[in-house]
Amino acid sequence: MDLLIDTIQRYISLSPEEEGIIRNLFREQKFGKGEHLLLAGQVCKNIFFIEQGLVRYYVSIDGEEKTSYFNKEGEFVCDYSSFLPQQPAQTNIQALEEAIVYSISKSDIEVLYQRVREGDRFGRLALGEVYVTAIHQISSLYADSPEQRYQNFFDNFPDIAQRIPQYYIASYVGIKPQSLSRIRKRLAQKH
Fold first, then answer.
1. Do residue 129 and residue 157 come from a single domain?
2. Range of the domain at 163
3. Among 14, 36, 64, 80, which is most exposed with the fewest C-beta within 10 angstroms?
4. What are the CA-CA distances from residue 118 to residues 16, 112, 114, 121, 122 (Å)?
């Protein structure tokens, strides 16, 4: 749980007592490769923090999965559009490899906000990052070419590209796997 504490301390300072509060509020969970942390239609009841592993966010449209994001070790995972209003999710969150996560419920995050001196500030800063990332992602889908979106993938996820199957990367970029192969070939010829 040290990674979780260190990550929170990037946003706010914590006293030893507050570290103890956080350690008591988060629960360890394990997910196998392919298991879902959240399925579309369920209400997202937890925020997860990845201690070990990798997850993807995706939606199913007409039987086709469209990958929208990835999270890795040291990052928070949540469908905030479901979690905050406690409404059914439209997004699936799936472990791409064995994962160890720490989860905190909506009621316990409220306890954290109340009992940790700068808890509210942490929540605002962390959610602000999620919001900005989502806006950049949506803008890229409309404004950038597939080649640029592929480059953005490597800029945003340089350390996990080898851990993700190519068809998920293609889905994230918004193209078919065959098109991804052509883009990769063109980019390799440029370098």
1. no
2. 145-191
3. 64
4. 14, 9, 9, 5, 6
